[in-house]
Write a structure and sequence with these properties.
It is built from six helices and 18 strands. By secondary structure, the protein is α+β, with helices and mostly antiparallel strands. Strand 9 and strand 10 form a beta hairpin.
Length: 305
């Protein structure tokens, strides 16, 4: 048993020496990322889709870097994963972001995207919590455990696996090609296309409808309606309420009714006052959705009557 352990250690050391030798050899021969596009100024106030989940997917990033990723990706591109990497020759950091369209290399000042069909990728060297990958003719040290990096390699190398992953991810769009998305940190929000199709999102479901099918939408503070569909507001008075335990938008279509959570009830049954940031931000987000729906509804009525 001891001899087997010694042999195992020797094999690992031999493999390490071979990988290190290959890495050093390739470091002199391989290239760096070229023909990069400069990242434009990203206005945080204009980001309509929350970037908080990027931090959960890739803890190596900070808020500013997650904001760059969310700001540079088109609204109709969904990231499949996010990995932190450094280009070995230059030590420049990049965020590797495979989407339903292509693989993005996003730095803090520049970016580039490459079609999946144009990518060759392989492991050159294994480290404890990273791997040296050769992507085309460029070496990157990519952070992550074995499972995360293996899944990334499989995504790039296996078209069937990638296509299935993309199909699963694109269920979020319910078949539309969105030109506007408004999503908060809870995963609640809407996606719209240019044909008045709307996908309502929550963490647990995505629901496709059209503005012509919506009977009402209401902002609820607890069980009290404080705002509703503009064309319905003359029908009844709404409540003036300045605190809540939870905040929701209720959508009623000609087929069913459902709830979009804006502020979830806390485990400690906390009362959110109108002066609290949670209440202010939640109501502001809810009003943004309602204003978008009001505008869509008004345009639809004007064009059909």
């Amino acid at each position: 048993m001891f001899e087997k352990l010694i042999n195992n250690v020797q094999d690992k050391y031999k493999k390490y020496k071979e990988e290190s030798s290959l890495y050093n050899d390739l470091l002199n021969k391989t290239k760096i990322l070229e023909n990069l596009i400069t990242i434009p100024n990203i206005d945080k106030t204009k980001i309509t889709v929350s970037y908080k989940d990027i931090l959960e997917i890739c803890p190596d990033l900070n808020e500013q870097k997650a904001l760059i990723i969310r700001g540079i990706l088109p609204l109709n591109e969904l990231y499949l994963t996010v990995l932190y990497a450094k280009e070995c020759k230059t030590n420049i950091e990049y965020f590797l972001v495979p989407t339903n369209k292509s693989l993005w290399f996003i730095g803090t000042t520049n970016y580039k995207k490459i079609d999946y069909e144009s990518i060759n990728i392989q492991i050159i060297k294994n480290n404890i919590m990273s791997k040296i990958l050769q992507i085309n003719d460029i070496l990157f040290e990519v952070n992550g455990n074995n499972q995360k990096i293996d899944d990334f390699l499989k995504l790039i190398n296996e078209k069937t696996y990638r296509d299935n992953l993309i199909l699963e991810k694109e269920k979020e769009f319910c078949g539309i090609n969105p030109n506007l998305r408004v999503i908060n940190e809870l995963g609640t929000g809407i996606s719209l296309d240019d044909k008045n199709n709307i996908v309502f999102h929550s963490k647990n479901f995505n629901y496709l409808t059209n503005i012509k099918e919506i009977i009402n939408y209401e902002l609820l503070l607890d069980d009290n309606v404080v705002i509703e569909k503009k064309s319905n507001r003359r029908v009844r008075l709404t409540t003036n309420k300045n605190s809540c335990y939870q905040m929701n938008i209720r959508i009623t279509t000609n087929k069913n009714s459902f709830i979009l959570p804006i502020i979830n009830k806390s485990a400690f049954n906390e009362l959110y006052q109108a002066t609290s940031s949670v209440f202010i931000n939640g109501k502001k987000f809810a009003e943004k959705i309602i204003n978008i729906l009001d505008e869509l509804d008004e345009n639809y009525l004007n064009n059909n009557y």
